């Protein structure tokens, strides 16, 4: 199976694992020549907060989730790393439930692989609080690579 499209999904909790997410993405995209779709999924509250923090003028223009994602620090950091590695990419933003939005976007871009970050949780923690990564792994239309932050 050829890998032509990789979805790298990031969210508000991924700042501590961006380097690992980028490295894992480059390890797959580099040799295969795959195009990477950098995706930042926001809940409605996260999106509204990002609009304020990034000083968007919402009265003058229609601001899309793609626009907000492009200016978000996590995406900008990943863009710099992918540029250095010579990996081609697109940027997408979505507003909604993290897990559902990632799975929907994986379908939309016909992803051959999804990379998603997460942290170690006990089974009880997943049951009580849910797990975006678990939802993506169970529902994605393609293989999913789970990237955990370095533990010290």
UniProtKB/TrEMBL annotation:
InterPro entries: Rossmann-like_a/b/a_fold, Universal_stress_UspA, UspA. Residues 5-148 form the UspA domain. CDD domains: USP-like. Signal peptide: none annotated. Belongs to the universal stress protein A family. This is Universal stress protein. The lineage of its organism: Archaea, Methanobacteriati, Methanobacteriota, Stenosarchaea group, Halobacteria.
């Amino acid at each position: 199976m050829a890998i032509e499209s990789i979805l790298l999904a990031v969210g508000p909790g991924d700042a501590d694992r961006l380097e690992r997410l980028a490295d894992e993405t480059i390890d797959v995209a580099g040799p295969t020549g795959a195009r990477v779709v950098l995706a930042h999924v926001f809940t409605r509250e996260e999106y509204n907060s990002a609009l304020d923090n990034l000083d968007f003028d919402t009265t003058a223009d229609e601001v899309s989730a793609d626009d907000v994602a492009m200016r978000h620090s996590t995406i900008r950091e990943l863009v710099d790393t992918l540029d250095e590695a010579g990996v081609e990419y697109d940027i997408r933003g979505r507003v909604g439930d993290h897990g559902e939005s990632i799975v929907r976007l994986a379908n939309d871009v016909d992803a051959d692989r999804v990379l998603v970050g997460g942290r170690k949780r006990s089974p009880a923690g997943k049951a009580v609080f849910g797990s975006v990564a678990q939802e993506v792994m169970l529902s994605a239309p393609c293989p999913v690579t789970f990237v955990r932050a370095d533990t010290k």
